[in-house]
Backbone:
């Protein structure tokens, strides 16, 4: 039976009691109604994510409450032991409200809840799940999405994001829930006073910081070179832990971007707070230039990613890509652990299939093996768990993805911007002690292992027809291409067929002549089609020209 958007709209109009949401409903025209009600907000391996507004396809107290009631019933029917959930939240508008709403619903349904008393990074939620032996974790965040978004990420008992199978089971419970029960939210304060909700203690924060510090590889003693650092949390959660870890590690020359230091869900100076994009980093770079800093560090709102701006040998500044940061950290880790005698004989590096293929060459030079996984840090977390189950817990030395996510041990099972900020600062000091800045260290990597330009183009397909359009494009690409941008297609890896021992996923990877690759996939968290380029050439100019050529051909195919 076709979905009746107008009937759903009328149901919400008569049932919603929240004044702000009611006003949004009254202001909707037909197009807005269709956009807000054409589907339910999808619950996948990233939980929920969407624009904050009224409607079934939006993040609001009703969709969050419905999802939480369904999740609670999944927990009650699945876990025979004591049922516990950890909850965290970031600086986004409504994150704390949604977090306390979820906590109250879970506690009222008989589930013990541990919740952070302040906004803190996503990796600290992953850590809290493990510290309190919880069945499930919930993080209220939309990561690096624009200010109008929020999200509801769900973690399993090992601190890793839920799998596809778990997401499907939880979705089935959510689908049975009524959007408008008699009571939307139980009394949070009463449940807190009763002990059914408990604030996570400061000692868990200290334990987390201790685990981060264990990953340090460079001693900032009195003789060490002190790099000059500018740091910005992009109005997110990183301020306390990142400044804390830098201070504990002995970094003394740290300045902050004042306009972006305090939490602000409107992100007034960076409406798209993604450290991968230049506009989000522009203010921080202006600080770095004014102060003559060696590096700019930026963490996204939930502080699981880190972006880096670096001073060039000429004294100008450049933004490093997520792949470049990953290569620098990988080289740094391998060099330092080799020098200290702590590199395992069977060391393992884990990366996603869209991440630079230079990494395996570096790993191989140190007799380390590389495992490729699907896009999403949860798959890197899964590999850490598998290594532990096989008795190889210490073999994992580095996991990273091109979107600025990094991890070097299993204390959490998600990317950690606090750890990454510390390691980038350390690497800067380490290479400075050898008379090099980060750009020069990166040039050494390219000289030894070959140059490749890695870039990402995203194409937005919103609304009811967006998903269908992306599916049609993927079908078109699967019909076969002999060349792309003049490069011969030597092989196509279709991950929808479940290859390389990986779960089936709507991802295509084209292996092109000359060690270049192209990956295309629909995003799992945004209405976007993403195209990843890794183009090998003699130098940056040649790779850039070839990338532009490939991008134009792909765009012609997408929009034809």
Residues:
């Amino acid at each position: 039976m076709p979905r009746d958007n107008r009937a759903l709209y009328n149901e919400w109009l008569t049932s919603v009691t929240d004044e702000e949401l009611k006003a949004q409903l009254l202001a909707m025209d037909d197009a807005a109604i269709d956009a807000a009600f054409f589907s339910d907000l999808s619950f996948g391996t990233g939980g929920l994510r969407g624009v904050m507004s009224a409607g079934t396809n939006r993040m609001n107290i009703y969709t969050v409450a419905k999802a939480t009631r369904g999740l609670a019933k999944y927990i009650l029917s699945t876990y025979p032991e004591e049922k516990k959930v950890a909850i965290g939240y970031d600086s986004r508008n409504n994150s704390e409200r949604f977090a306390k709403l979820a906590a109250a619903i879970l506690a009222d349904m008989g589930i013990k809840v541990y919740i952070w008393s302040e906004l803190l990074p996503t990796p600290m939620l992953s850590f809290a799940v493990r510290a309190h032996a919880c069945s499930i974790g919930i993080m209220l965040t939309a990561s690096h999405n624009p200010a109008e978004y929020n999200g509801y990420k769900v973690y399993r008992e090992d601190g890793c994001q839920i799998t596809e199978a778990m997401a499907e089971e939880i979705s089935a419970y959510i689908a049975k829930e009524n959007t408008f029960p008699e009571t939307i939210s139980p009394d949070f304060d009463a449940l807190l006073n009763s002990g059914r909700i408990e604030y996570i203690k400061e000692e868990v924060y200290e334990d987390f910081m201790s685990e981060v510090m264990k990953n340090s590889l460079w001693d900032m003693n009195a003789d060490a070179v002190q790099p000059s650092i500018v740091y910005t949390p992009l109005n997110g959660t990183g301020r306390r832990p990142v400044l804390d870890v830098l201070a504990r590690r002995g970094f003394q020359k740290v300045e902050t971007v004042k306009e972006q230091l305090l939490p602000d869900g409107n992100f007034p100076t960076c409406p798209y707070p993604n450290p991968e994009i230049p506009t989000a980093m522009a203010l921080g770079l202006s600080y770095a230039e004014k102060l003559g800093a060696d590096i700019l560090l930026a963490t996204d709102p939930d502080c699981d990613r880190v972006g880096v701006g670096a001073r060039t040998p000429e004294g100008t500044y450049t933004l490093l890509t997520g792949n470049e940061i990953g290569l620098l950290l990988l080289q740094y880790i391998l060099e330092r652990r080799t020098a200290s005698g702590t590199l395992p004989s069977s060391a393992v590096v884990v990366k996603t299939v869209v991440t630079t293929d230079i990494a395996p060459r570096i790993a191989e030079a140190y007799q380390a093996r590389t495992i490729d996984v699907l896009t999403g840090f949860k798959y890197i977390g899964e590999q850490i768990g598998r290594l532990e189950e096989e008795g190889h817990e210490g073999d994992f030395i580095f996991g990273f993805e091109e979107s600025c996510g990094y991890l070097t041990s299993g204390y959490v099972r998600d990317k950690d911007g606090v750890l990454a900020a510390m390691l980038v600062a350390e690497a800067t000091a380490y290479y400075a002690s050898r008379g090099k800045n980060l750009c020069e260290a990166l040039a050494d990597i390219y000289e030894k292992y070959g140059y490749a330009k890695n870039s990402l183009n995203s194409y937005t397909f919103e609304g009811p027809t967006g998903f269908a359009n992306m599916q049609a494009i993927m079908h078109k690409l699967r019909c076969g291409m002999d060349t792309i941008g003049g490069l011969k297609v030597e092989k196509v890896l279709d991950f929808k067929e479940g290859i390389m021992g990986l779960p089936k996923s709507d991802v295509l990877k084209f292996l092109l002549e000359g060690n270049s690759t192209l990956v295309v996939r629909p995003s799992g968290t945004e209405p976007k089609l993403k195209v990843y380029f890794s183009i090998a050439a003699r130098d940056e100019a040649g790779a850039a020209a070839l990338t532009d050529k490939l991008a134009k051909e792909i765009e012609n195919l997408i929009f034809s």
Remarks:
- The domain at 452-559 is CATH 3.30.310.50 (TATA-Binding Protein).
- The chain has three domains: 41-204, 225-449, 452-559.
- DSSP finds 18 helices and 21 strands in the chain.
- The first strand starts at residue 48 and ends at 51.
